[in-house]
Design a protein that fits this description.
Radius of gyration: 64 Å
Biased composition (Pro residues): 23-41, 95-126
Strand order of the largest sheet: 1-2-3-6-5-4
Order of helices and strands: HHEEEHEEEEEEEEEEHEEHEEHEEE
Largest sheet: 6 strands, antiparallel, barrel
InterPro entries: Chloro_Bact_Ser_Proteases, PDZ, PDZ_sf, Peptidase_S1_PA, Peptidase_S1C
Structural class: alpha+beta
Region (Disordered): 1-173, 462-483
Number of strands: 20
Shape: elongated
Oligomer: single chain
Strand content: 15-25%
Biased composition (Low complexity): 49-79
Keywords: Hydrolase, Membrane, Protease, Transmembrane, Transmembrane helix
Number of helices: 6
Length: 542
Amino acid sequence: MDDGKPTGAKAKWWSRPSAEQPPQRPEQLPPAPGPVVPPPARAGEDEPGTAAAPAGDAPSVQDAPPATDEPAPAAAEAAPPRPLHEPDEYGTPPYGGPGPWAPAPPVQRPVPTPAGGTPVPPPVPPQYAGHQPHPQDASTGPQTPQWLQYDPWGSPAAPAPFTHPGEPPRGKRRRGALLVGAVVLALASGAVGGGVGAYVERRGGITQVELDQAPRESRDRAPDSVAGIAASALPSVVTLHVSGGGEQGTGTGFVLDRRGHILTNHHVVAPAGPGGEISVTFSGGETARGTLVGKDSGYDLAVVKVSGVSGLTPLPLGNSDNVRVGDPVVAIGAPFDLQNTVTSGIISAKERPITAGGEKGDGSDVSYVDALQTDAPINPGNSGGPLVDAKARVIGINSAIRAADTGGGGGEGAQSGSIGLGFAIPINQGKRVAEELINTGRATHPVIGVSLDMKYTGDGARVGEKGKDGTPSVTPDGPSAKAGVRPGDVITEVDGRRVHSGEELIVKIRAHRPGDRLKLTLTRSGDERTVTLTLGSAGGDD
C-alpha cells in the first residue's frame, strides 16, 4: 500500500508563507484562472497514454516553467523563495489534496439562511495546482483577501451579497428601489384614503341614506279645521299700505261685497289724510289703488273701495251675539307686513269694555269698544283683519292688543308682541257702522243725552254738575231728561249689567243702535231707582 510514496517527513500542506517573504515581481505572479492544460511531456517520458497512470489520480504538478531560448531577465536569476516544507519528489499530492503551491480554499463565515427562500449561488469549485487565477488588474481597486479570520464564538457579520464576477453589488440599488416604491405606495394610499374620508364625511357614509317618510296624502282638509278655515277665508283678506302727511302704516282688511268695498280700522287709514295714498294687495299678490269711502274714530272703523278689480270674493259675516266663551277662532292678517299670516285661539271673554287711541289728547280719537277678547296671537299689522269662527264667518274685527310694556291697551302705536290678550270689535257693530259709512259716508252714535264726570273715582258712572263750556250736564229734551235723570245721579247698571266707570257706560251704550230702548239703574241720595229711555243719535266724525 505504501509503494511509491515518500518515506520522509510529511509535507505541511496547510502552512502559509511567512510574513518575511519578499514580494513577488509581476512576472512571478500566477497566471489568471483558466482551463487546466496538461503540461507537455518531458524528454525521455512516455507520450500521454503510453505510461498508464492510475485511474482517478490528480495531474502532476509542473515543477518549473518550460525552457525557452530567450534569456531570462536579470531579476529572474535570483533564487526563488524556498517553501516551508520539503518538495514532493513525486509531485503528487496525497489523497487528491492540493499541492504545496495551490491556494487553500477560501474560508467563508457561516451566514444565516436567506429569507424567503432566496436561492444561494452554487459554491465555487476549488482550484488546484496548474489552475492559476488571472492576475487582477491594478485599476479594479482593492481585492478581497482569500484568507479570512473565522471566530466561531463571535456574532456573524452581515454577509456580502452574491454577485457574478465583475458585477457591482445589487443590494443598495434594490433597497433604494424598494424605499421609493414604499414612499409612492404610501402617498397613493394617503390620497385614496383622504378622498374616501372626505366623501364619507360629506355624504355621511359610503352608501346613500334614505329616510322613512309618510306617503303623499290628500291636500283637502276638514272645513272646520284651522287649515280648512284659512283656505276658505284667505282669498278675501287684503293688506293695506298707507302713506301721507309724512306718515305711513300697514294694516289688514277684508272684502265686504263684489263692488270692491273693504272694511278695516280707522287707525290703519288715518295716516293717509286728505291727500294720502292707499295701496291694496290681495292674497294672490294683485295690487290695486284704494280710495277712502268713510271713517269713524269713535268706533275705530273705516271703509275703503277698490275699482277695476274682478273676481272679488266677499267674506261671509257671522253674528257676534251667537259667540260663546271658548269657541275656536282664527285670526288672519299681516303682522309686521307678513301678509296671509294665520293664527288660532279661542274666545276668552265677551263684552270686554276697552278704550283705544287718545294720541291727540282731546279725546276726539278715542274709541270705545265692547270687545270680544281672544288669545289668538294678534300683533301690529293685524289691525282691521277678520276674526272668524269655525265656519269661516267673520265675528269680529281685530283692533287692539294689551301691551306688556305699557300695561294699557293699544293698537298700532304699541309696538310690542302679543301676550295672548287681543280684542276685536263685534261684527254686529261693525256691520251697522260699515253700512252707514257706505250709504252716507258717516256713522251715527247712540247717546243718552248726558255729560259724565270722568274724574269720578267711585263705583259707577256719575252725571256731571255742568256740561262742556258751562252747558247743562243733562241735555234738555234729551233721552235722559225725558227719563228723569238729574245731575249728580250715579248710573250703576245698563239692562241689568253692572258698570263701574264712565268709560264702561259709554261702551255699553255704543254697543246699541240709535232708537234702542235701555233700562238704567241709578242711585240718587242713597236711593236706588230704575228708569227706561230711548237712545238718541249723534253724528260721528267725517
